[in-house]
Write a structure and sequence with these properties.
The protein is built from 4 helices and 6 strands, in the order ααββαββββα. By secondary structure, it is α+β, with helices and mostly antiparallel strands.
């Protein structure tokens, strides 16, 4: 009976710690995205490994491509801030061990024009692989890449 109780307590502790890790990660990421929305990409960038790789949706737009290293990813994030893209995390899924975790993030983003009109909005799923709490690879999958191309053209028309 004591062995069974010990196993049950161990399992409950594991589940509780897993839930706590998930919630802490969600709070941290939402805080980092709020900082990004306010014009500071540094908290979010600190979550990437020095040699991280970010693969952004391919297409005929200015953000298309693969960004290698924290500096390149920082420039990528600054580019988003420059054109006023803002976003929010809508969902978060995690799997794996804390030292080698896979994270899926549901992310809605949008941008408004100088007059307040909505120029762009989209939904994305970010697939992140981590190593000891740092993102080492991220791939972004947009629901509608045509919206991104249209937004890029609007920005060009506005001289941005």
């Amino acid at each position: 009976m004591t062995l069974l109780l010990g196993i049950l307590i161990g399992l409950l502790t594991f589940v509780a710690l897993r839930i706590a890790l998930h919630r802490l990660l969600l709070v941290k990421l939402r805080r980092d995205v709020a900082a990004l929305n306010a014009g500071d990409h540094r908290p979010l960038l600190a979550g990437y490994a020095q040699d991280a790789v970010l693969v952004f949706t391919e297409g005929d737009h200015r953000w298309s491509g693969t960004y290698v290293g924290r500096d390149a990813i920082g420039e990528f994030l600054e580019g988003f801030m420059r054109v006023g893209i803002k976003g929010e995390i809508t969902e978060l899924w995690t799997g794996g061990w804390p030292w080698s975790m896979t994270i899926l993030v549901g992310f809605d983003d949008h941008a408004d024009g100088p007059g307040g009109e909505r120029l762009y909005e989209n939904h994305t799923v970010l697939l992140c692989r981590t190593r000891w709490g740092k993102i080492v690879r991220q791939e972004d999958f947009y629901v509608d890449t045509v919206r991104m191309i249209g937004f890029d053209r609007k920005l060009t028309e506005l001289g941005m």
